[in-house]
Amino acid sequence: MIVAENLCKDYGNKHAVNNVNFCISKGEIVSLLGPNGAGKTTLMRLLTGYIEPTSGEVRIFDQDLKTQRLECLRRIGYVPESGFLYNEMSVCDFLHYTARLRGMTEEAYQGNLRLTVDNLELREVINQKIETLSKGFKRRTGLAAALIHNPDILILDEPTEGLDPNQKVSLRNFLRHYGRNKIIIISTHIMEEVEAMADRVILLNHGKLVKDTTPAELKELFPEHNIETAFYKITSEAK
Amino acid sequence: MIKTIMTILKKEMMSYFEGVSAWVILSVYILTSMFVTFFVGGFFSINNSGLFSFFYFQPYIMALLIPSITMRLWAEERKSGTLEFLLTQPISVLSVVIGKYLAAWLMSSIMLLLSIPLWIYLNIYFSADNLNIISGYTGCILITGSFCALGCLISSFCSSPAVSYLWGLIILFCLNVSDFSSIIEAMHLPQIIELRLHKMLSLSSHYYDLINGQVGLDNILYFILIIIICLWLNVMSIDYKKN
Ligand SMILES: Nc1ncnc2c1ncn2[C@@H]1O[C@H](COP(=O)(O)OP(=O)(O)OP(=O)(O)O)[C@@H](O)[C@H]1O
Ligand SMILES: [Mg+2]
To answer: Residues with Cβ < 8 Å from A121, sequence gap 6 or more?
Structure first.
C-alpha cells in the first residue's frame, strides 16, 4: 500500500505539488495524467524519496518514507523520466551494478536477470554499451534495472516514450501481468494506454489532484465518451 | 553500508581506468613531479636526504591534478541525470559520498606510489633519512586526502565537470598559498593569538612540518578535520541541491 497525505512540494513560490492525497493498494495499476508541468514527475520524485516534501508525508506499506527511507526504497523500482543510464557501461554491467547497490545476492540476481532480460527482450543487446543502444532499448534497459529486484511497487515516468508500436503493446501486456499483485504507477500522455492498462486514473493539474477515478468513469463524465475530451475539458476548466 | 561503499568505489575505479583519463593523469603526474624534483627543486644540489625537493612541490602538483580526478564524481552524475537513479536506490547518501571520495583518494595514492622508485634510488645512490621520508609521505597522503575531499565537495556543487575542474584548481591553489592573513588580521586579535592562528589554519605550515619530519598529532588532526568537514558538507550539498 502506498499512501500520500497532504503532500506538498513548493519550488520558491510555485506549488509543483499541492496538497495531494491518495491511497493505492496492491493489484492496482494507476495512470498518472496531467498536462505538461502538472507535477507528475515531481509527485513521482516525492514517492521515491528523491526529493523531500515541503509538507505532508508518504507511507509505503505502513512505513514512513522519511524515517524509514531505506526499507521503503527496497520495495520500489523507479524509472525516471529520461537519461539516467550510465552510458559507458554495458547493459549487463549496469544491471549488475544496480543489483549490487540493492544488496542482492549473486544467486538472486542471476535468477531475476534471466527473467527480466527475457521479459523485456534484451538478450540481443546484453553485452552492448548503453551509449550505442537505440532509444527504445535504452528505455527497456532502464525498466530492467527497475525490475531487477522484483519490486512490490513500480513507478514509471513516461515509460513508453520512444518505443515502437510492437514494443508498446508487449510492454503493456507485461505490465498488466506484472501488476496483478503489485502496485504500478505510470505517468503518460498517451490516452489509449490509459484505457488499455490502468485500473485507476489520477489526474493532476497545476499540482492539484483534480480527479481520482477509473478510466471507464472518466470516459462517461462528458457526452463525447472519450478520455481525451475528458482530459481536455477538466484541465482547461481549471484554468 | 560497507558493501555499498565498496560497490561505488569499484565502479568509480573502473571508470577511471576504462577510458584514457587515469593513464593521462598518471603520466602527467610522473612527468611534472620528476621534472620539478630534479630541475626546479635541485635534487642534486641541496641536502636531499628527506626527499625534500620532491615533497616541497607536491601540494602544487596535486592542486593541478586532483581536480581532474574529482571533477566528474558528482558533476557528471548531475549532468547526465544518473544522480536520480543513484539516489533512489536503497542506499544512504553518506555511503555514496564515502565511496566516491575513497575512489578519488585511492586514485591519487596510486599516483603517489609512482614516486616510490625515487625513494629507492635515493637509498641506493645517496644517503636517505627514511623516517623523515615516511613522515613526508604521510604528509602527502593527508594533503591528497584533504584535496580529494575538497574536490568532491566542489564537484557536488557544479553541474559540469569542466566548471568543477576550474573551481577546484582555483580553490586548491589559493589554499596552498594563503595563510588566511587577511581574515585573521581583520579580527584585530592580540599578536600572540594571531601568530598561533596563522600556524593553526595555514595548510602549508602543517604540511611543511610533516615533510620536515615533525609528525605531531596537531598536523595529522588538521588534515583529518578538513576531510571530515568536507565529507559532511558534501552530504549536505547533495541533499540540499536535489531539493
Ligand atoms: N527543480 C525544480 N526547480 C524549480 N521548479 C521545478 C523543479 N522541478 C519542477 N519544477 C516545476 O514544477 C512544475 C511541475 O513539474 P513536473 O516536472 O513535475 O511536471 P510534469 O507533470 O512531469 O510535466 P511533463 O508532462 O512535461 O513531464 C513545473 O512547473 C516545473 O517548472
Ligand atoms: Mg514529467
So the answer is: A140, A170
Convert the pLDDT of each residue in A125-145 to its tens digit: 999 999 999 888 899 999 999
Q: Is residue A9 a contact partner of residue A66, using CB atoms and an 8 Å limit?
A: no
ipTM: 0.90
pTM of the model: 0.91
Q: Within 10 Å of residue B111's Cβ, how many Cβ atoms?
A: 23
Kindly state whether A101 is in contact with chain B, defined as any CB-CB distance less than 8 angstroms. yes
Q: Is A151 on the interface with B (CB under 8 A)?
A: no
Query: Is B84 in CB contact (< 8 Å) with chain A?
Result: yes
- Residue pair B61/B32 in contact (Cβ under 8 Å)? The answer is yes
Q: Which ligand is nearest to the CA of A204?
A: 1
**For residues B216-238, average pLDDT:** 94
Residue of A43, A50, A68, A102 to mutate, interface with B, max B Cβ within 10 Å: A50
Q: Is A103–B4 a contact, with Cβ atoms under 8 angstroms apart?
A: yes
| Residues of chain A neighbouring B7 (CB-CB closer than 8 A) | 97, 100-101
Q: Cα-flanking dihedrals φ and ψ of residue B211, to 5°?
A: -75, -10
How far apart, in whole angstroms, are the C-alpha atoms of residue B148 and residue B106? 10
What is the pLDDT, as a whole number, of residue A238? 58
Is the Cβ of B159 closer than 8 Å to some Cβ of chain A?
A: no
**Complete edge-to-edge strand list for the sheet that includes strand A29-33:** A76-79, A153-157, A183-187, A29-33, A200-205, A208-213
Any idea which residue has 603520466 for its cell? Answer: B27
pLDDT bucket at B204, cuts 50 / 70 / 90: confident
Residue nearest to atom 30 of ligand 1 (CA): A37
- 3-state DSSP call for residue A156? strand
Q: Which of A42, A46, A235 to mutate to test the pocket of ligand 1 (most atoms within 8 A of CB)?
A: A42
pLDDT, tens digit, 9 for 90 and up, residues B99-108: 999 999 999 9
The C-alpha cell at A56 is 505532508
- Of A237, A221, A231, give the one whose Cα is nearest residue A40: A231
Q: What is the pLDDT of residue A196?
A: 85
Give tens-digit pLDDT for B56-80: 999 999 999 999 999 999 999 999 9
Kind and range of the H or E element at A117? helix A106-119
Any idea what the Cα angle at residue B71 is, between residues B65 and B74, rounded to 5°?
Answer: 150
Neighbours of A31 (CB within 10 A): 24
Spell out which residues of chain A touch residue B243, defining contact as CB-CB under 8 Å: 51-52
C-alpha A58/C-alpha A49 separation (Å) is: 9
